[in-house]
Specification:
Length: 283
């Protein structure tokens, strides 16, 4: 039995849609390029697609067909420009949030390969980072703060973070010298150096003038920096390093003033030089 004219037209229409879709996914010009659907048309498409899901087999085929393909730079630029300044509505954000709750995220339990993570990290370093040279506004910082209030990472997450930043993975890693630092600081020579600094300063804080109490002998040039500069790797190396025991690199400070010392060496030196009391009482 032959098809009616209406059925023939419907078949032709579907063929055209199928061909256009294929041309689009293959990166060729589509019949609808440059055209825009009306709001009514877009609404109807959205309604008709609600609740529908692409079969797993079809998704797999699409994924395989797109592997290794990249959009041309000009296309990527256009997409980026068209999305600038756009924000999801509260309703859309709520829907996305609900869709990802309860372990529904596609990435749950998955980890990107190290090579991919390395490439992503490299692609976002320095000036390439979208936030380079920018700062959060006070309003944004307040919102972030409010959102995090009362929240606490699970014990498992905290242990993972701690382990990930331990030892050589930590940005402050100096080659495992902490035990050596403790040995030096508890040595007789170090105690003698502290005593010499205190005696020279008449057991007086060189910032506020407090005499006695809890005093600290502060290194003007950082203790760790000297160790690193002279490659001190043993107690013998430390005892033979003259700069480490130079009392002119030490200054007596009370506990409170010691806490106020800036962390950076240059700032510390400027802080000391700006204090007339220090210079009056140094000799």
């Amino acid at each position: 039995m032959g098809r009616s004219k209406t059925e023939q037209l419907e078949i032709e229409r579907r063929k055209k849609i199928s061909i256009n879709n294929a041309r689009f996914w293959l990166g060729k010009v589509g019949a609808n390029k440059g055209k825009k659907f009306s709001e009514e048309h877009r609404r109807k498409i959205s309604e008709s697609q609600k609740g529908k899901k692409i079969p797993e087999e079809v998704r797999k085929k699409i994924s395989e067909a797109l592997k290794g393909r990249k959009l041309p730079p000009e296309v990527r630029k256009k997409i980026s420009e068209s999305n600038k300044g756009r924000k999801f509505s509260e309703e859309t954000r709520r829907k996305i949030s609900e869709a990802l709750r309860g372990g529904k995220s596609a990435w749950l339990g998955k980890t990107l390969p190290d090579e991919v993570r390395r490439k992503m990290s490299k692609a976002h370093k320095g000036e390439k980072n979208h936030f380079w040279g920018k700062k959060h506004t006070e309003e944004t910082r307040r919102k972030i703060s409010e959102a995090k209030k009362g929240k606490r990472q699970s014990l498992e997450s905290r242990i993972k973070i701690a382990n990930a930043n331990r030892g050589a993975n930590n940005y402050q890693w100096k080659g495992g010298i902490t035990p050596l630092v403790l040995k030096i600081r508890h040595s007789f020579k170090y105690r003698q150096w502290r005593s010499d600094v205190f005696t020279r300063d008449n057991f007086t804080c060189q910032n506020c003038g407090q005499r006695g109490g809890v005093l600290n002998a502060h290194h003007i040039k950082k203790f760790i920096k000297i160790m690193d500069e002279y490659k001190i790797r043993s107690l013998e190396d430390a005892f033979n390093c003259e700069e480490l025991w130079n009392i002119n690199n030490g200054i007596t400070l009370c506990k409170d003033c010691h806490k106020k010392i800036p962390a950076r060496e240059k700032e510390t030196q400027e802080w000391i030089e700006s204090d007339p009391y220090f210079w009056e009482n140094l000799t």
